[in-house]
Model the fold of this input.
Amino acid sequence: MTEPDDTGLVTRLRDLALVEIDALLSGVEGEAYLALLAAHAEELEDALGAARRRAVELTRTIAAGDPLTLLDAGVSARARDGGRDEAERVARRLTARASAARALARIDDVVAAVYPRLIEVDRRRANS
Done:
């Protein structure tokens, strides 16, 4: 998933976090109430599932290994071939890890606002 995809996912989650269940269901009764509640639950579950899958991808990037492993190798290993290629490789890996960590933080922040909405919908579905 690319950065714009993350933006779309985060926007979708933020939009869902704004939905007030009482306002959504206002004036709706009977089968229509249950159908709207189920549809909203499905939307929440789908968005949270997408966030979960993306979080797994990002976590893999973050946990992919220590980019600074050559610190333990010593001067000659780090300076091999002038060290420029290794320095660029390490910089790319650190940048990728930092980007993944920021993306994961954005997703986690908004999921924290959406997940309680799902629990509220589930509670209402169980009591209907």
